[in-house]
Design brief:
Bound molecules: ligand EPZ
CATH class of the largest domain: Alpha Beta
CATH topology of the largest domain: UDP-n-acetylglucosamine1-carboxyvinyl-transferase, Chain
Number of strands: 23
Structural class: alpha+beta
Radius of gyration: 22 Å
Number of domains: 2
CATH architecture of the largest domain: Alpha-beta prism
Distance between the termini: 23 Å
Largest sheet: 4 strands, mixed
């Protein structure tokens, strides 16, 4: 894909975000825990979700589009096999969450190392630690993991880091193991809690305590229906778009999930109004706000998935800002691209120092992961002239249903085209 952004348009209006990709993916995986029908609503039409649906269809499910829009009825057509198709698993990180449910259902499972955005080493040791504690014997052969379990049992598991995926993996598996499993230092992201709500409706008992999740598993789980929470990262991306472009934007979302972002935008000098189900941002655009310090941390800290977009915003702030990334080891790929547009950013390990500049200028830049790509689009909204974001791997569409269309609905001027790779487009002087 290639996005051509004609900079300098202010953004005005309202927008409703789609369901959360990072909630929908584990919810879809959890449907493997039952043979009953599961009805899921508010599933976003993004690339990663489409891949997860394809994987489920290889694992004995039929995933039928239903009403209302963005709903799916997931039915079982045959019992799950024990292995997931490698070529699909390798397309996204969240596919690894199928490992535990497959072991819990079939007593054995085979899965390959997952793929996903290139933002660090992305080990799976905490997933394996959790599954081993629950009684699975796991061996690895090259990129493939084989698990076998005569009988799974509940366990007390401490996670060295509150990994979102490992917490979800263990929670799903434990939901199908009678008895009490405790996850300490568990991730407490809204997407993890959304999965807990689905598992409770399916018949598991889950108690959420500060830092801990207590799961009372059941021998069988049942069908149910569930509506996915709104996408807080998409919401945050649109709020930062309003901030950087200038204008008056209202995003319909769940404000409780965006407290760290709202507090930071307020601190930088934007006018933020929080309502029950929406957030409004009023901005005078580049140069009207100050710099600040951002530290990307596990929830409820500032979301790492909004860190690249924040870097674009801070590139046009008055004064010096710093960003520290504590979740992923390599998530500053947008810095060099923003520098091509005139930003002044120095990266030193996990910290980036940003000297605000008065203007960015449009040029050709490359997005190498979903959020870095989105950050460059946002920078293009505020840049002088034309910015072309080359997204040859289609990363942006893996995480956003229609980023360009949504921004155009607010007044942006973005053209989305299939990229003819390497045939770079030079900025033209379109008004
Ligand atoms: C989820 O990834 C999200 N993806 C990511 O969003 C998000 O950045 C991340 O959580 C953190 O919030 C989905 O939910 C599908 P983690 P996940 O396990 O679960 C280390 C996006 O742009 N770690 O919490 O893979 C890991 O290396 C994506 O939408 C281990 O060391 O994240 C990382 O440094 C990108 N061992 C940290 O923990 C493990 O076994 C956080 O990873 C697992 C993780």
């Amino acid at each position: 894909m290639k996005l051509t952004i004609y900079g300098g348009r202010r953004l005005f209006g309202d927008l409703k975000v789609e369901g959360a990709k990072n909630a929908a993916l584990p919810l879809l995986a959890a449907t493997l825990l039952t043979d009953d029908d599961v009805f899921l609503q508010n599933i976003p039409d993004v690339g990663d979700v489409r891949t997860m649906i394809q994987i489920l269809e290889h694992l004995g499910k039929r995933v039928e589009p239903a009403h209302p829009r963005d709903s799916y009825l997931i039915r079982t057509v045959e019992p799950p096999p024990s292995s997931a198709p490698e070529y699909l698993v390798r397309k996204l990180r969240a596919s690894f969450c199928l490992f535990g449910p497959l072991v819990a259902r079939t007593g054995k499972a085979q899965i390959s190392l997952p793929g996903g955005c290139p933002i660090g080493v992305r080990p799976v040791d905490l997933h394996l630690k959790g599954l081993r504690a629950l009684g699975a014997q796991i061996e690895s052969l090259g990129n493939l993991f084989h698990a076998q379990a005569e009988r799974l049992h509940p366990a007390e598991i401490y996670l060295d880091f509150p990994s979102v995926g490992a917490t979800e993996q263990i929670m799903m598996t434990a939901a199908l193991i009678p008895g009490r499993t405790v996850i300490s230092n568990a991730a407490q992201d809204p997407e993890v809690h959304d999965l807990a709500r689905l598992l409770i409706k399916m018949g598991a008992g889950i108690m959420i305590e500060p830092g801990r999740l207590i799961i009372e598993g059941a021998p069988h789980l049942q069908g149910t229906s569930h509506r996915v929470i709104p996408d807080r990262i998409a919401a945050g991306t649109f709020l930062i778009a309003g901030a950087i472009a200038g204008g008056d934007v209202t995003v319909h979302c769940q404000p409780l999930h965006l407290e760290a972002l709202m507090s930071k935008l307020d601190e930088l000098g934007f006018e933020i109004q929080e309502h029950v189900e929406s957030i409004r941002i009023i901005s005078e655009g580049p140069g009207s706000y100050g710099g600040g310090r951002v530290e990307a941390r596990p929830y409820p800290g500032f979301a790492t998935d909004l860190q690249p977009q924040m870097m674009a915003l801070l590139a046009l702030a008055r004064g010096t800002s710093t960003i520290k990334e504590t979740v992923w080891e390599s998530r500053f790929s947008q810095a060099a691209e923003l520098a091509q547009m005139g930003a002044r950013i120095r990266v030193d390990g996990a910290t980036a120092t940003i000297e605000g500049v008065e203007r960015l200028r449009g040029t050709v830049v490359r997005g190498s992961d979903t959020r870095a790509g989105a950050a460059l689009v946002l920078a293009g909204l505020a840049a002088e002239g034309v910015t072309t974001v080359i997204d040859s791997e289609g990363h942006i569409a893996r995480g956003y249903a229609d980023l360009a269309g949504a921004l155009n609905g607010l007044g942006a001027d973005i053209i989305l085209e299939e990229a003819s790779e390497e045939k770079e487009v030079v900025a033209s002087g379109r008004e």
